Amino acid sequence: MKRFILSVLVLTAVSCLTYGANLTISIKGIRSSKGKILIMIKPVGKDATYQNMKEITNDSCNFVFKDIEDGTYKLSAFHDENGNYNIDKDEKGIPTEGFVLKTITVSNSKNSSSEAIKLKLFYPLTIK
Fold first, then answer.
1. Half-sphere exposure at residue 17, Cβ-oriented, CA atoms within 13 angstroms
2. What is residue 115's predicted lDDT score, i.e. its pLDDT?
3. Across all residues in the chain, what is the average pLDDT?
4. Domain 20-120 - what CATH class?
5. Spatial separation of the C-alpha atoms in residues 87 and 46, rounded to whole Å
6. Strands of 99-106's sheet, edge to edge?
7. Which of 23, 59, 60, 116 has its CB 3.0 to 4.6 Å from that of 65, i.e. a possible disulfide?
């Protein structure tokens, strides 16, 4: 009987563990290889954030975030062309570096251990 109760407890504990999947984010259409891409994802309603920064390869950049749980996330990324770790803006407050803001939903199905998201940076027109 003790063995049965112990088996049930172990099985219950193991089934309660949640494993997240890998989230791959591909950013394409980067206008130059100068600088880096900075990215952040934040679960809606939670304080945690996931951040990363990478060099640009050709006109793209790929990020992999491991063990991301199901949920809704706010994603922001920008092309830090001058290396100051800030998104630069003009005198009107309009960003001068490429960026993307998006709300994403991660849904880890039992058949998949990863999810992929493809994005393109928006570069505002500068009128002089």
1. 7
2. 74
3. 83
4. mainly beta
5. 24
6. 50-55, 36-43, 71-80, 99-106
7. 23
Please give the structure tokens belonging to residue 116: 């992929």
Sequential DSSP letters for 50-97: EEEEEE-BTTEEEEEEEEEPSEEEEEEEEEETTSSSS--B-TTS-B-S
Any bridge partners for residue 21, and if so which? 68
What are the pLDDT digits (tens) for 34-69?
999 999 999 999 988 999 999 998 889 999 999 888
User: Domain coordinates of the chain in residue numbers?
Assistant: 20-120
Among candidates 105, 118, 18, 24, which has minimal Cα distance to 65? 24
Q: Are 68 and 50 in contact (CB under 8 A)?
A: yes
Q: 90: Cβ–Cβ under 8 A, 6 or more apart, which residues?
A: 96, 126
- Length of the chain, in residues: 128
